[in-house]
């Protein structure tokens, strides 16, 4: 039984993604600390944060709203990761873990948002 947002697999995986993004961006040049590093870390942190906030709001409508915000942050992170891959410093980094986690999380969020649609 799910008692807390911490019991949600999607929240747990999103937390793993945050750690993976921190590890990845640690390898970026220091000149990116206020650029891509900051943007990617904030977008990653936003995903589990919005899952938690939505779950704690208590209503189905609010929960879905925050799941959609988490999905938006996932889209931001995906775009920022693609930018990093295209830059010279990002060519030789390993994105497999972050890409896999983000893809899995986005699928889970999409499914969750559909399940939270208003019942007619």
Kindly describe this structure.
This protein has 4 helices and no strands. The protein has 120 residues and is mostly helical. The longest helix is centred in the middle third of the chain and has 27 residues, at 60-86. The mean pLDDT is 95. The protein is 72% helix and 0% strand. The chain has helices at residues 9-25, 36-57, 60-86, 96-115.
Q: Keywords for this structure?
A:
120 residues; mainly alpha; de novo design (two linked rop proteins); 4 helices
Indicate the mean pLDDT: 95
Q: Give the termini separation.
A: 26 Å
β content, as a range? under 5%
User: Briefly, what CATH class?
Assistant: Mainly Alpha
Number of helices: 4
The coarse overall form would be elongated
Structural class by sheet pairing and helices: mainly alpha
- Please give the number of β-strands: 0
Task: Determine the CATH topology.
Answer: de novo design (two linked rop proteins)
Order of helices and strands: HHHH
Q: What is the alpha-carbon Rg in Å?
A: 15 Å
Brief characterization of the structure:
This protein has 120 residues and is mainly alpha-helical. Helices cover 72% and strands 0% of the residues. It has helices at residues 9-25, 36-57, 60-86, 96-115.
Topology, pairings included?
Blueprint: H1 9-25, H2 36-57, H3 60-86, H4 96-115
Helix pairs in contact: 1-2, 1-4, 2-3, 3-4
């Amino acid at each position: 039984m799910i008692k807390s947002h911490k019991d949600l697999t999607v929240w747990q995986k999103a937390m793993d993604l945050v750690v993976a993004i921190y590890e990845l961006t640690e390898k970026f040049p220091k000149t990116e600390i206020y650029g891509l590093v900051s943007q990617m870390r904030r977008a990653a942190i936003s995903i589990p944060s919005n899952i938690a906030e939505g779950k704690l709001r208590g209503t189905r409508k609010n929960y879905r709203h925050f799941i959609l915000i988490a999905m938006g942050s996932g889209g931001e992170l995906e775009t920022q990761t693609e930018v990093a891959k295209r830059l010279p410093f990002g060519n030789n980094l390993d994105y497999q873990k972050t890409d896999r986690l983000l893809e899995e999380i986005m699928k889970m969020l999409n499914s969750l948002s559909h399940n939270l649609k208003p019942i007619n």
